[in-house]
């Protein structure tokens, strides 16, 4: 993993008009109706699908990764993606490992503290970045995936295995699981805002609402899905000090998404500032990046 000096890709948008999200409209064919959004209780772990775990070494830091059969869960033989039915949550993607490494480096460098924070992992799959947040003392960690089956068969067993192995988190920490499409899941997430435009949202007690840290890895491969993802981020992000950490490939060949395309979308909207944390060019795939997004140019740092 090659670490670059952090740089600003875009300037603060304080002098730009609010462009809304009208520029995201397109004529792409719609996906099938998504499954209903539901909360999956940790007690609902699947008893019929066997999840085995094995260690994965992340530059000297070890987590457990689960393994289940895509055919056994969905009846899909070795399929990475079936749009609108299965979004690849059973596969451990490189970006998930990249993101854990980047977060660990940020914590070790004193640039980030997860202790006591409200954390949301979108498109979680194995949930390794969210598990790392649990181990770092986050007060709340909510895991979201498109498929409830992924949560029951993989995410929940993997979270339980890792937290049991590490004797963490603090018993007072809240861990919950939510399944559903990015266009609708905000209705269930406890710390989401009513509207993405409500950037200064506060609770009735005067405390900030929203998630302090949003984590997502390999979530930007689909251009149509990016629109709902970006709207969801704006509905979930705590303001003004919330931060998003994202891992993804520069380009996802064959599906059109990628970090360059996603950053272009953010630049057009002008509501967030992006900075590069690390770039990964190890030859195992095309170039991958870990990026940080903040609202209004605020950089979330540990003081």
UniProtKB/TrEMBL annotation:
Its EC number is 2.1.1.85. The keyword Cytoplasm applies. Its main location: cytoplasm. It is an enzyme of class 2 (transferase). The keyword S-adenosyl-L-methionine applies. One of its GO terms (biological process) is methylation. It comes from the Eukaryota. GO terms for cellular component: cytoplasm; nucleus. Residues 1-35 are annotated as: Disordered. Pfam families: Methyltransf_16. One of its GO terms (molecular function) is protein-L-histidine N-tele-methyltransferase activity. Residues 1-14 have a biased composition (Low complexity). Gene3D superfamilies: Vaccinia Virus protein VP39. It is found in: Cytoplasm; Nucleus. Keywords: Cytoplasm, Methyltransferase, Nucleus, S-adenosyl-L-methionine, Transferase. PANTHER family: HEPATOCELLULAR CARCINOMA-ASSOCIATED ANTIGEN (PTHR14614), HISTIDINE PROTEIN METHYLTRANSFERASE 1 HOMOLOG (PTHR14614:SF39). Belongs to the methyltransferase superfamily. METTL18 family. This is protein-histidine N-methyltransferase.
């Amino acid at each position: 993993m090659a670490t670059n000096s952090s740089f600003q890709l875009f300037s603060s948008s304080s002098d730009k008009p609010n462009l809304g999200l009208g520029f995201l409209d397109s004529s792409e064919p719609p996906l099938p109706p998504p499954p209903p959004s539901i909360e999956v209780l940790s007690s609902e772990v699947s008893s019929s699908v066997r999840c085995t775990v094995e260690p994965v070494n992340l530059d000297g830091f070890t987590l457990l990764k689960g393994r289940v059969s895509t055919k056994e869960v969905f009846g899909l033989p070795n399929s990475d993606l079936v749009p609108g039915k299965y979004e690849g949550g059973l596969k451990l993607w490189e970006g998930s490992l990249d993101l854990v490494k980047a977060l660990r480096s940020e914590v070790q460098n004193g640039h980030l503290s997860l202790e006591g924070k409200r954390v949301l992992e979108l498109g979680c799959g194995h949930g390794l970045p969210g598990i790392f947040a649990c181990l770092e003392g986050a007060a709340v960690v909510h895991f979201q995936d498109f498929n409830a089956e992924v949560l029951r068969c993989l995410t929940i067993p993997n979270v339980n295995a890792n937290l049991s192995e590490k004797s963490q988190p603090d018993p007072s920490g809240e861990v919950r699981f939510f399944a559903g499409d990015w266009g609708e899941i905000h209705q269930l997430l406890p710390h989401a805002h009513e509207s993405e435009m409500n950037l200064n949202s506060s609770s009735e007690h005067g405390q900030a609402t929203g998630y302090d840290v949003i984590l997502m890895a390999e979530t930007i491969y689909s251009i149509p899905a990016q629109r709902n993802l970006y709207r969801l981020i704006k509905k979930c992000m705590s303001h003004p000090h919330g931060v998003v950490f994202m891992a993804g490939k520069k380009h996802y060949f064959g599906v059109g998404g990628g970090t360059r395309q996603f950053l272009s979308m953010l630049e057009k909207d002008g509501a967030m500032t992006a900075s590069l944390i690390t770039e990964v060019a190890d030859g195992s795939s095309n170039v991958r990046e870990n990026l940080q997004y903040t609202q209004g140019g605020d950089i979330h740092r540990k003081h």
